[in-house]
C-alpha cells in the first residue's frame, strides 16, 4: 500500500493494477512495446517502496521499472552484466537493506545491486543464482533462500554457507524474540542460527 487507500497489485501476465479503495476504482498499467515509458513487463514479481519514496517493480522478462509520478510513467532498468554477457531481464524480488541499498534477485544471473550514481543495477554476485528471497537480520547478517537451501550470505568474501531445506525457500522472518523462521514449500522451519 503506497498511501492510504492506494493498493498496488502485481499480476502474473496482466501488468500492474492500482486499486483506490476510497473510490473503488482501478488504474491499470501494461507493457507497450511502442511506449518506452510503459511498464517494463506484465509479469510483476515484486513491488518495493524505498525510503526515498520511489516505487520499484521487478518483472519476469522485462527488467525493473521505477514509477515516475510526475508523468504517470515508468523508467526501465536492466541488469548490467560483465562485458559480453548481455543484460538480465528476469527478476524475482527487490529488497532494501538497513542502510538503504536496493538489491534485486534474478533467477538466472545472481544478485544485483542498484548503483545510485550510475543509475544502474550491477551484478554483485553471480554465484547466488535462483534466489527467491533476501533478508537482513538484526545483526546485519544477510540470508537468502533458493530452490533447495537457506543461504548465509557473505557479501565481503562471497563465500556462502548453504543449509539444505530440500524445498524452495519462499520467506525468511525474524521475530521480536530473535526466533528465526524459514518458510518453505514443505512448511515452516524454526532455524537455530547459533548452532549452525
Q: What's the SSE blueprint?
A:
Blueprint: E1 6-10, E2 16-20, E3 25-29, E4 44-49, E5 55-59, E6 64-68, E7 73-77, E8 79-80, E9 87-88, E10 91-96, E11 102-106, E12 110-115, E13 120-125, E14 133-136, E15 142-145, E16 149-153, E17 161-164, E18 169-174, E19 180-184, E20 187-191
Question: How would you describe this structure to a colleague?
Answer:
This protein has strands at residues 6-10, 16-20, 25-29, 44-49, 55-59, 64-68, 73-77, 79-80, 87-88, 91-96, 102-106, 110-115, 120-125, 133-136, 142-145, 149-153, 161-164, 169-174, 180-184, 187-191. It is an all-beta fold and 196 residues long. The strands form five sheets. The chain has a six-stranded mixed sheet, with no helix packed on it. The mean pLDDT is 93.
Low-confidence stretches: none
What does the largest sheet look like?
Answer: 6 strands, mixed
How is the largest sheet built, in terms of strand order?
A: 9-8-13-12-11-10
Order of helices and strands: EEEEEEEEEEEEEEEEEEEE
The amount of beta strand, in percent, is: over 45%
Helix content: under 10%
Multimerization status: single chain
Count of runs of 4 or more consecutive helical residues: 0
- Calculate Rg over CA atoms: 17 Å
| Mean of all residue-level pLDDT scores | 93
Q: What is the count of β-strands?
A: 20
Structural class: mainly beta
